[in-house]
Amino acid sequence: MHPNTIFQFEYSYLSLPEIFYSPVRPSIAIKPEIFLLNQGVCNALAIPNQSHQAIISALFEHNGAEKTRTFAQAYAGHQFGYFTMLGDGRAIIIGEHITTEGERFDIQLKGSGKTPYSRGGDGKASLKAMLREYLISSAMHYLKIPSSQSLAVFSTTEPVYRETMQEGAVLARVMKSHIRIGTFEYARHFGTAYHLRALLQYTINRLYPEIKQSENQALSLIIKVMEQQIALVVSWMRVGFIHGVMNTDNVSISGETFDYGPCAFMNAYKPETVYSSIDTAGRYAFGNQPKIMKWNIARLAEALLPLIHPDSDTAIKIAQDVLDSFDTIWYKKFDEMMLHKIGIDQINAESLALVDELLKLMKMHQLDYTNTFFQLLKSLENDHSLQFETELNPWVEKWRNVLKNSGNPAQARLLMGNNNPAVIPRNHRVEEVLGDAVNGNLQPFEKLLEAMASTYRYDDKFQHFMKPPLCDFESKYQTYCGT
Predict the structure, then answer these.
(1) Can you tell me the distance from the alpha carbon of 55 to that of 333, in angstroms, rounded to the nearest whole number?
(2) I want to staple 169 with a disulfide (CB 3.0 to 4.6 A). Which of 127, 204, 388, 400 is the partner?
């Protein structure tokens, strides 16, 4: 461990063979300044109160043994179904911070300059893009969804050239681990059995030590990751989140959401909704997310086949048996979640038919996903300030009768309250507050974060953020990988 006044860094990842990383240092030409600091993340990491300059020095100005230990990770991945060699093209891990509770978190600088994996890119990031990741990752935290977190945004005043010239910035990102499905694909395609086994052992020791005694550790890891990712995508769909780039290099083994490029939150319920400018075929549409995750888990299984069983045919059969269980697990978790959104705790044919009917009505009449469920919740609290769409009235009566017959209205309100946010970071509001922030006015940005912090505790003062955009905005809105 290499202590400094703020972070307690270790470098366990460097115990892996050297093909998994490249030593590299941040290369910021202009000295950064803290634009935004996340005090909540500081508290979670048990980072003591320090001056902004001390934080900058700890992350950007290494000395002694730490100087050469910062690194970029190598990995591969299937991007929109096509395999390619990748790696951290604009991100550098500064170290693995160990909290006072013994928890380990990667501290990564994103936008900190070129690496050996930049593939012709400049390795930089814009202030608007890094503020966007800070905002969305914070929102995901408040929505109770596992996610990377943003420790700070640093402005550099370096020019960054994208569609236009923009101000540069660096994000300090925090995750339990940046190991991805693509890391295992990299080991399988560009390494040897030794490299693949080393990565497996390291991953289990770091993230899932409970499976160390398993007879088939590779298979147990696939099962663990599949369960984690199913739970994660169920959480996404609970709040209408569309990741946008569910490539295998963006699927974390730790089960955290990360890479907030072309992501967005759905307004009107439409499973075909896509926001990414490059997803012209709708591969990563809202309703496709579960089957894409199943596809991604299959790629992890392919990478680990040599460690599942020495005979390839046997290994494939064993892995396929696990993959065949995906749908059963998915539908159980998804059905439970959707029933909880309407206050029902028991899965049966009648209750599932009620959910199906509601979703069909919402799609047919283009009803807002978040507001519809929130209105149902408020109606149980005898709050009729938000009126139902008339198209829902017959369904609502049927639903109320089901809840009445269950005999536990308090339980119904609790389930709905825990699963239906009042506020999401709607795309048009996100663009508004980001525009103000890059122009020096952080107040609207902070107001939206405040609304997200109380999204499960409704407050009238945040009604502004509950209004969907006009149809004209929705028809033209897109996000990009560099967003």
Answers:
(1) 41
(2) 127
Helices marked H in 8-153 — which ranges? 39-44, 52-60, 127-142
Rounded Cα distance between 483 and 475, Å, is 18
**Which of 133, 165, 168 has the alpha carbon at shortest distance from 152?**
133
Return the SS3 of 122. Answer: coil
Phi-psi map region of 428: left, alpha, beta (phi>0 left; psi -120 to 50 alpha)? alpha
- The residue annotated as part of the active site, out of 249, 259, 279, 368, is 249
* 436 tagged catalytic: no
Other CB atoms within 10 A of residue 113 CB: 21
Q: Which residues is 329 bridged to in the sheet? A: none
Of 283, 282, 285, 242, the residue nearest 264 (C-alpha): 242
- Which amino acid type is present at position 124? K
Segment 403-454, tens digit of pLDDT = 988 878 889 999 999 999 999 999 999 999 999 999 999 999 999 999 999 9
Tokens of 369: 């996903």
3-state secondary structure 75-88: CEEEECCEEEECCC
